[in-house]
Amino acid sequence: MTEAWALENDGQLALGPVRVKVPAKINLHLGVGPLRGDGYHELHTVYHAISLFDEVTARTGDALTLTMQGEGVGQLDLGDDNLVIRAAKALAVAAKVEPKARLHLRKSIPLAAGLAGGSADAAATLVACDALWGTQFSRADLAKIAETLGSDVPFLLFGGTALGTGRGETVSPVLARPSKWHWVVAFAEGELSTPAVFRELDRLREAGQAPAPLTSTDALLAALRQKDPEVLGAALGNDLEAAAISLHPALESTLEAGRSAGAHASLVSGSGPTCVFLASDEVHGEKIAEAVRPHARGVHLAHGPVPGARVG
Ligand code: C5P
User: Fold this and answer.
1) Bridge-partner residues for 163, per DSSP?
2) What pTM was estimated for this model as a whole?
3) 270 lines ligand 1 (CB under 6 A)
4) pLDDT band at residue 176 under the 50/70/90 scheme
5) Which atom of ligand 1 is nearest to the CA of 118?
6) Beta-carbon neighbour count of residue 97 at 10 Å?
C-alpha cells in the first residue's frame, strides 16, 4: 500500500496517484455450449493474458470522474455506463466508502475487438481504487465484484493462463511449464458486438451451418505442458470464429495472410474482429506481421502469458 502514498505539490500528504497496468486477453480455446436461461452461453475456455496493456491511474478527488487518451477517444462513453465508472462504484458499495476518485484511462487495447479491453479496464479500476481507498480487499474478494461487471473481468485480475467455466467468470490457473509464447495481434477495421456474435453462432447452429463445436480443453492443456509452438498451434480453437467471419467476411483474408506466412495458428480472438497468429519467436513474428499488415488497421507483437492487473 506504501506505493500509493506520495507528497503532492502543495506539500500535503495525499493518496495517489495509483497507476495500474492491465493486459488484454486472448482465448486459446473458446468452446461455446448451449444458451442458458439467463441469456449467457455455457463456456469452456482457456484465457491467456498478453503483453498489450491499458493503464488506469486513480487520484484523490471530490467526485468520481473519468478522462482518457489513446484508442477509442471520442467513441467511448465516459459516463455512468462506462465499465471503469461501474467498477469504481461497485467497489465503493462493497467497501462502504464514498466513490470519490479522479480516474484516467490510457488505452492501447482497441474497443469491441475481442480482446476484453473494457473488462481489463474494469479489473484495473478495482485494483487501483482498492489501493487508493485502502480497502485492502483480497484478489478473491475483488473477483466476486468483478464477476458482476462482466464474464471475463475476474480473469483480468489474475492474468497468466487460466481455465474459465460457467459463463467464463469462474477461473482457475492452468499449471503449465513456464513458457513464453509469441503472438502477432492484428487489429481489424471496425468493431464486433459480443452479443451479436454469440447470436450469430446460435443462428448458424440452428441452420446447421456451424462447424462441429470444440470438445474438451484436454488437448490444449496437454499442449501447454510442452514447449512446441507447432503442437500448441494445432490445439488452438474458437467456436465463435465462424460467427465472427460470417458477420465480418474480410477476416478470412487476414487469417489466410498469416497462414501463408507460416504462422503455427491463425485464429479470431474471442468474438473478434482481432485476429491472432502464433509465431516461433520474435523474428518469425515480424515476418508474419509484415504479411498481415496490409489486411489490418494495426499490428502488434506480443508475448504471453503476463500477469493480470497490477499496481506499478
Ligand atoms: O459478461 P459480458 O457482459 O462481458 O457479456 C456480454 C454479452 O456477451 C452477454 O450479454 C451475452 O450476450 C454474451 N455472452 C454470452 N455467453 C457468455 C458470455 C457472454 O452469450 N458466456
Assistant:
1) 46, 172
2) 0.94
3) no
4) confident
5) 4
6) 14
Digit-coded pLDDT (tens) for 197-239: 999 999 999 999 999 999 999 999 999 999 999 999 999 999 9
Residues with Cβ < 8 Å from 244, sequence gap 6 or more? 114, 192, 197, 200, 251, 268, 271, 272, 273
Instruction: List residues with catalytic annotation.
Output: 25, 152
Tens-place pLDDT, residues 28-42: 999 999 999 999 999
For 196-202, the CB contacts below 8 A with 24+ separation are 196/247, 197/240, 197/243, 197/244, 197/247, 197/271, 197/272, 198/32, 198/35, 198/41, 198/240, 198/243, 198/271, 200/243, 200/244, 200/246, 200/247, 201/32, 201/239, 201/240, 201/242, 201/243, 202/35
Is the distance from the beta carbon of residue 117 to the nearest atom of ligand 1 less than 6 Å? no
Strand-pair partners of 58: 18, 103
Place of cell 505442458: 225
The per-residue pLDDT for 15 is 57
